[in-house]
Amino acid sequence: MARHKIGIVGIGKISQDQHIPVIRKNRAFDLVAVASTRGLTVEGVPHAFRNQTEMLEGVPDIDAIAICTPPQVRHAIAREILAAGKHVLLEKPPAATLSELTDLADYARERGLVLFTTWHSQYNEGVEKAREYLAPRTVTSLDIQWKEDVRKWHPGQEWIWDAGSFGVFDPGINGLSVATRIMPSPLFITKAELFFPENRDAPIAANLDFRIGDVTTNCRAEFDWRETGDEKWEMTVGTSDGSILKLTRGGRMLTIDGEVVVDGASEEYEGIYERFDELLNRREAHVDEQPFRLVADAFMSGRRITVEPFTE
């Protein structure tokens, strides 16, 4: 089968660290173009443009484009790419609002094109094993701890503090994507506290309480960008039969009742592009809005708490 000709719009940290090297390793794809408003180029990629319009005009036989820009501008970019008859991969979070994502899903479906929302933490091996284990069980407790140092993971990225940039939910949505993937019952937010630095328009921390099916106690998430030292990307799940399941390292390690079930390497983006290849070959869309919807619910129902200013 012919390789998919793919381009990337937005050459920031995630593109450079993940998308570009992973695409190059995957024989199903041929990275033929990049677009950067800063005029960045990528060694070995034959075409470089300032935006998606130039890319579509310059490489008319391109098959698909991965959008790795900040979320505020993705809707217009994705719309233009879909209108040109090309398939789209959306880095997380997929858009600025739920309405924008719904519109893109409808627009792609009307044209028979692939739209793929990527939640990279879902592609860790431990996540799928956890889902399989919990499927026949009743969850009685959930504790999510997703904490990291914003200065380490978003150095100098002022856009993350703008309204509409999600703040601490930019990494926190990864934890929510794991939870929505593995829970045997839907999650509903019952309480939210959002902590905003007095000089910023996006939260630096958040606490959420959940209802999972009929379970209304001991279901909580804590997200914090003020963590120092090692990152905490973990969740602990209790079940009615007394089992304790724990996912750590973002889902790369799974233990059940203290026994290690999975201890894998980080191959999240490898899994994303393997899945994208499958979707392209089937011309099948995959739009998962559940993690995104929980973030929207948190902003809608949350109590805003002002905390000390944040400076880089």
TrEMBL record:
A Pfam family recorded for this sequence? GFO_IDH_MocA
Q: Where is the Gfo/Idh/MocA-like oxidoreductase N-terminal domain?
A: 5-116
Check the record and name the InterPro entries matching this protein: Gfo/Idh/MocA-like_OxRdtase_N, Gfo/Idh/MocA_oxidrdct_glycsds, NAD(P)-bd_dom_sf
| Gene Ontology molecular function, alphabetical | nucleotide binding
Q: Which Gene3D superfamilies match?
A: Dihydrodipicolinate Reductase, domain 2 (3.30.360.10), NAD(P)-binding Rossmann-like Domain (3.40.50.720)
Under which name does UniProt file this protein? D-galactose 1-dehydrogenase
